[in-house]
Amino acid sequence: LYTYTGELKLLSDKPTSFITTEGLAINSVIRILGNAIYELQDDFYSRRDLHVNRGGLHSKGFSLNVLSFRSQGTETRDIDIRNSSLTSRGGGTNTFRIDQTNLSWESEGSEIFLQSNDADFIPPAAASFKKVIATGQKILIRRDSLQIGYLEMNGHGDFYHNIFVDSVKMVYGHTYNIW
Description:
- The strands form 3 sheets. The chain has a 9-stranded parallel sheet, with no helix packed on it. Strands 5-8-11-14-16-18-20 form a 7-stranded parallel sheet, with no helix packed on it.
- By secondary structure, the protein is mostly beta strands.
- The protein has no helices and 21 strands.
């Protein structure tokens, strides 16, 4: 078994390409840079970051577990995480950050787990999530018109803009700011 810890750049220009990990963890930063839509064929686990900078990623109901999940820049991107769980273990401004420019986004029925002590959750505006659970000391949620079915926070929380939540669980003794 070979262990590579550098950066993997996925550059396919085929309309659709596939990612199969067969249960193995990826030790590298993954950057999707080609024009292809990459479809998961099984659960995806990376010890590092996943960047969708061009092309796209469709999770097809499989789970993603990454250090951070990002899609930034102005290139055309298509991300579909519907009915999937996505765990982000990293912290700060890059925990879960999706820029909206030239983005097609689907997330209905998805469950997001933020496991950092200082998690920023910055999805696209008007995104919809079945569940968002933040297990760390603090969460920052920024975007307009988010729809969250169930929100659970185990630490302090800061909320910016209009966030619509059906059910929320907050821990007594923590501070929650709504801006």
